[in-house]
Structures are given as C-alpha cells and as structure tokens.
C-alpha cells in the first residue's frame, strides 16, 4: 500500500480563504482557471471521484442515461468527466466564473450551462428539473451560502437527490459554523428532504478529510 501523502496545493487553500466577498472569490478562480486542471490532479484531488461514486450508489446503471444532473459550482468540468465515464449523459453545469466555465464548455460533456451564482439571489435555473444536483468543493469563505441549499432543493425533482462533497474543515468557517447543519436539519423537519448519507472520508484534497452528504428531496 502506498504511503505517499499529498499537500493541499497553495492555490486551493488561497481560494477557500481569500475573501468573504463572492466577487473576489470568483476573480481568484478566474486567475487560476488556466492552470486549475494541472494543479488539481486525480491523485491530489479525489473530490470529483468521491461524489460520482455516491451518485452511482444512488442511481442504478439502468437509469443512468435517463437522469438529468446539474453540477453546481462545476468549475472546469472535472465532475462531468467522471459522470460521463460512468454512463451518465444528461449533464448541465452552473458556474459563476466565466474563465472556468469556458474551459468546462470545451470538454463537450455538458449540455446546458448557467453562468451564475447559487444562493445569492435570482436564478435562471428552472424548478423541479434535475434528478441529481451535485456540488463538489464549493464550500469555503465567500463560496455557496447556506441559502444555496434551498435553491438546490428547488431545482431538484421530488424523489431526486442533492449530493455535496466538501472538505470537512470548511464546516468551521463562519459562513457555515452553527448554521449549515441546523438549517439542513430544519429543512428535514419541514419535510423538504431526508438525509441518506453523512460520512467522513479520509481524503478529499491533499491530506485533508472530506465530508460526503446526500439527501433525497421529498
Ligand atoms: C474548488 S472549485 C470546484 C470546481 C469543481 N466542482 C471541481 O470539483 O473541480 C469551486 C467552484 O465553486 C464556484 N463557486 C463559488 N461560489 C459559488 C456560488 N455561490 N455559486 C456557485 N458556484 C460557486 C467557483 O467559481 C469555483 O469554480
């Protein structure tokens, strides 16, 4: 068994700590976009693979070409590339950084794309549309706020799933600490969704632990 460990690339730490201002966060991704895929390889960043493993657990192989998936905070399209390799074909992407989205479009894996934020106000994404909304590595300072969760539920069809994979440590940032899980629990008490998975993974990026959660929308 390999004992090799990987550090978190400095650009990734910078992006999740740079600012509380979402527009400054996006400017940081714009600067990083051209080298993002070289910086984050399948060796040091397993978030996309973990998320797609969770989706394949939820969606049987026979349904994979029929389900509609929205990749939120899709970046350069790493999650879509993993999805298509496992038989998913109807993949849309939402990403507020144009420079990242341009690279994503060049993958030719995504059908519709939305150049917009989630959780910060108006949205052009229709309601009750997706069988799976997937979010990977989009939590941190100035990233998707708690309100983004309500939006993910709105975009998902009843019976569909929201799957989110993130660094575990980001739950401690003020945007989420004592807010995110209580809000998610409140939505569960209100009958909006039901928890399916909540688990810690030993690695998400570099040597940092990941959190995988999935909820079924009711
Ligand atoms: C670390 S990247 C992850 C990209 C991709 N999911 C991946 O795993 O490679 C975080 C992404 O979240 C996006 N992002 C940040 N705030 C967002 C928001 N409020 N709504 C949607 N996306 C957001 C950024 O533009 C960036 O592309």
Automatic annotation (TrEMBL):
<dbReference type="Pfam" id="PF13489">
    <property type="entry name" value="Methyltransf_23"/>
</dbReference>
<dbReference type="InterPro" id="IPR029063">
    <property type="entry name" value="SAM-dependent_MTases_sf"/>
</dbReference>
<protein>
    <recommendedName>
        <fullName>Methyltransferase domain-containing protein</fullName>
    </recommendedName>
</protein>
């Amino acid at each position: 068994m390999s004992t090799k460990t990987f550090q978190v690339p400095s650009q990734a730490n910078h992006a999740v700590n740079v600012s509380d201002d979402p527009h400054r966060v996006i400017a940081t991704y714009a600067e990083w976009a051209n080298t993002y895929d070289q910086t984050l390889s399948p060796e040091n960043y397993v978030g996309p693979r973990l998320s797609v493993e969770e989706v394949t657990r939820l969606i049987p192989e026979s349904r994979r070409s029929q389900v509609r998936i929205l990749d939120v905070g899709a970046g350069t399209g790493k999650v879509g590339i993993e999805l298509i390799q496992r038989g998913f074909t109807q993949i849309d992407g939402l990403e507020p950084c144009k420079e990242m989205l341009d690279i994503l479009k060049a993958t030719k894996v995504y059908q519709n794309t939305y150049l917009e934020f989630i959780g910060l106000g108006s949205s052009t994404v229709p309601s009750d549309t997706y069988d799976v909304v997937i979010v990977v590595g989009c939590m941190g300072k100035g990233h998707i706020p708690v309100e983004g969760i309500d939006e993910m539920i709105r975009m998902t069809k009843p019976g569909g799933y929201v799957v989110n994979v993130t660094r575990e440590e980001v739950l401690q940032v003020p945007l989420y600490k004592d807010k995110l899980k209580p809000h998610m629990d409140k939505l569960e008490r209100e009958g909006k969704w039901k928890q399916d998975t909540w688990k810690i993974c030993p690695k998400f990026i570099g040597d940092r632990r990941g959190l995988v959660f999935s909820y079924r929308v009711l």
